[in-house]
Amino acid sequence: MKNIKIQFIVASTLCLFLLNCNQRPKRDLYPETLTGGFELLSAERTGIDFNNAITESEKVNHLYYNQLYSGAGVAIGDINNDGLPDIFFCGNQVSDRLYFNKGDLKFENITKSSRVARNSGWSWGVTMADVNNDGYLDIYVSRNGESMKPEDRKNQLLINNQDLTFTESASLYGLADAGFSSQAVFFDMDNDGDLDMYQVNQLPDARLFRRYSNIPKKREVYYKDKLYRNDNGKYKDVSEEVGISRDMTYGLSVSASDFNNDGWTDLYIANDYDKPDILYYNNGDGTFKNVTDEKLKHISQFSMGTDTGDINNDGLMDLITLDMASDDHYRSKTNMGSMSAEKFHKLVDEGNHYQYMANTLQVNNGSSFSDIANIARISKTDWSWAGLLVDLDNDGLKDIIISNGVKKDVRNNDFLTGLNEKLKTDSQDFYEMTKSAPSVPLSNHAFKNTGNYKFEKVEEKWGFDTPSFSSGMSYGDLDNDGDLDVVVNNMEVSAFIYENKTNGNFLNIKLKGSEKNTFGYGVKAIIHHNGKTQTAENVVTRGYLSSVESGLFFGLGKDTEVNKVEVIWPNGKTNIIKNVGANKELVVSYDDAKITSKIQVSKTTIFNEAKASDIGISFVHKENSFNEYEEEVLLPHNISQNGPFTATADINNDGLEDLFIGGALGQQGILYLQKSDSSFVESSSQPWAKDKDSEDQGALFLDVDGDSDLDLYITSGGSEYPQGSKLLKDRLYINDGLGQFIKNDKALPNIFESTICVKSSDIDKDGDLDLFVGTRLKSGQYGFPASSYILINTNGIYTRASIEVAVDLNNLGMVTDAVFSDIDNDGDEDLLIVGEWMEINILENNKGIFGNSADKFGLKNTRGLWWSISASDIDNDGDDDYVIGNLGLNNKFKASVEHPFKVYVNDFDGNGTNDVVLAKFYKDDYVPMRGRECTSQQMPYVAEKFKDYHSFASSKLIDILPEDKVKDGVVYEISNFESIILVNEDGQLVRKSLPIEAQLSPIKSSIVMDLNKDGNKDIITFGNHYGVEVETTRYDAGFGNVLLGDGNNNFINMSAIESGLYISLDSRDAKIIKQSNSNLLVISNNNDSVSVFKF
Hints:
The chain is mostly beta strands.
């Protein structure tokens, strides 16, 4: 009877296969308009009613087992080679389930007959792969759960018997891992042609350690990740010898990808809690190197799912990792606790990297990664599990879908407060306690890639917004109609089956692999169509606990032909197919691949990096330790870490430009003299060493006393000293003509302000240089405007100009930079000033009197977090244009003309300290950015007024701050954080945004020059800002930008690989030093050495 049944199934399968091939839907090759979207199919329609339901009880609840609501995975793959992908669901308390695809999106539950769920257990992750190389997909299930018995947790390897039945064979193959496993990936680690395997394991759930005492230490072997090498079909644990971490972590997912395009598969491991994620680069010799600190500037802290893909079609694999921070104000303020600054820095100090509770979208720039999750607006998507980079609307760009929701908000602050109170009573009724945790199903997310690092939130538009408790998620073309359908494993409701309704063209590449890698895992395909290029890798383990359909799928939009397809196998063999029509399945065989000779093309870059110490510049900036958050808890970022700044000039009249680099508080600046061989040596004259207790800020070489040599002015700043401190007085050092300097304290008036920049111009037309000095801040009074000033030079002695000379400098603001420029072409120099929370100020010079003319030049609503300004005739039309560096768009603050971002500053609680309240628009009014806990640390009355987190989260800003103190305080609003150029056209300044690549970080400095010798001015930008409060992801995505101009004020970004410019540090100031045969680009970096590039 058994054989008859099998023959019937096989025969039915063959019939369905033939029917499917004959009736495959035809796709319109010429769609008028590209559309995207899904239809959620009912269980009645599909036959899939799997529900990963959790039944709770006195002994089964989240107080006993913390991972109770972590969900389970799903895998899509064609288990019988009939051309229709089938679906496997993991179950926690319920049994796993396998659904056979009968065509037309109808499925049959064959779990019992297939024998895939004979061994019960807490299944978590699943991957389909051909482990025994017979051409049929096997199923590997990672087991977890609350059992402390290793035999209960052995992973399952279901070997495909080729007749829709499976035999569990994990022990036979050496893969019966008994750890607390989450997910596995099969890949070729050593390019020997067969599949090896990385297994992500965990420590036991923290609650289990409390329930079980005296756990044998020898069991720790089960808690570590494993790397299994395939030795002639049997798997051997080689973890100890290949260089992977032996730390015990809470790993949740793994991605395998060739990140550095060297032909070897690398690995990314996402770890929950305090231990950092790990990025392993494959050394090409069977071992791996942890390059996390080197390649990633920061990572997610509570990392869940992870995936890779090329989101910007530059041929480099990018990376997404999900966390659990909510984008909804109410849920954020009720469910998330404040990040402890002490804990954050302790983790960093212990080598656990910079971790933030936010999603990360790491764009691969060839040398390292830059997190662009904020500019993409996907950094916070609530308690998210799976994140997949996949083209769902067939337009050729990878979109993002995210599964969301946890059955109970176990981190709800009010729930935890009540729980802690109940625990104090010694009550043992834990099950009853858990019932008070809120339970809110959430919508999954879909983000359409619109290009240029921008993603549009489209779950509602695409019909992907049904609230649920979703976890594992996968995709595949379930109905063979040329687009990717989506399957989601849910808790408490049936799984979601989304039929994709997009109409764009496609190319699907099916691989016929080698004898030991039949499905071609690890194969990379590059397609070229209509001037565009796409790259994809055949890796099926993706997202969270799940695997996707094998193969390489490309959306083509309206393109009807692919000019060239390159299929690159792990051993380097390549297939090249030309002129492939759209809407086809292209079968590519390893047997047809050929070894291609790679021609090494030597690329010439504009910049060539040199080591500063090799040319004599050994200065290393050492930022002093200062906790400015002690008094101003709610500061958005550090304002004491502005330096170092530089100045260049020929100070000893030898025809060579020299270099001064300012020091931090407690560190002297250094003057370097250039030698005839283009190297540098420290000058014997360093009188500023005696003034190292003042913090060097802006520096300027100028001829103060008219003796034809250059003296040095250094501003004194930082936020360490209070206004009025003598250590804030600027300093002037007079050059004796031979490069020897003597401090002249009497040449400057006794002004004790925290200054940051000094600029020179002959304001009074008497033949010497007067000065503008920009004041950065009032210590302890962030947000309150400081007064800047002009110094008039009289025979080498400076006096402060009367207020009438520039009345607008009084209470001007928190200045960061300024430039003298003849904006109106009247023969005298006007003054442009920018700063933090400031408008762009244009003080027009009228016979030595400066008045604000911003409106006259068409500038309105320009307030920003401006860091820098530089002047140059960018378009070669005879007048100055301006590059102005803002905070950039890659930040958590959202600003628009309709709903600007705001700051409120005052002593709101009357306790003598300055209170800074950042505010955003939410629903119909403004609410505070920061939560109840940190807000009440700054203003204790908040905790008294709002007894719980719910009341605080439900309140508007006007309900929280005293109305009278708001009226008396400082209120600023910003509608745009973009860095820009101002084009001077016919007496008006026309605002134009810099390219998106220049918006990834704050621009602290910029240089305008013709880099590629085409006659058009180009722009180089620099900057980051590592010093932020710990709930804000630090600004570290910048690595310098080369923006090539076309002469018409249009700019395109030149990649770091092409330009050679790459400075992945906390960059500040940039200068160009002329040398005998080349130029030297010098960039100063906070708390680091100087970067230098020759060009």
